[in-house]
Amino acid sequence: MAVRLTAESGAIVEDPSRDVLADLLGAVGRGEEAYLIVERAEDTFAQVTQHDERWTVERRAGGDETHEVADLADLAGALDVLAAWIDGSDPETTVDWRPLDG
């Protein structure tokens, strides 16, 4: 599967560029979309939401034990994390990932 981005509205973008990702994250920030999901394969995804000026990014690479979450301060941070996830260079050391409580 190619990388697929799906917005809450149902819009789908195959292999999204950083610019497209930035535009759609802007829509989340403006309240036009509630979330974005980026998938690499079944059960391998990242998703983002924004509430009260904070951005939450989740990622999963397989089973429940791989499901992690991080809180970010701004759109730029969310963009950097998702763009890195899309190109396979997850920012392990720059983001405080924690297990998602089930």
Helix content: 10-25%
Distance between the termini: 27 Å
- Overall 3D form: globular
Report the mean per-residue pLDDT as an integer: 90
Strand-residue proportion: 35-45%
Largest sheet: 7 strands, antiparallel
Structural class: alpha+beta
Encode the helix/strand succession as letters.
Answer: EEHEEEEHE
In short:
This protein has 102 residues and is α+β, with helices and mostly antiparallel strands.
Would you mind describing this structure in some detail?
The chain has 102 residues and is α+β, with helices and mostly antiparallel strands. It has a domain at 1-37 and 73-96. 25% of the residues lie in helices and 36% in strands. The chain contains 2 helices and 7 strands. The protein is globular and about 30 Å long.
Give me some keywords for this one.
seven-stranded antiparallel β-sheet, 25% helix, 36% strand, alpha+beta, 2 helices, 102 residues
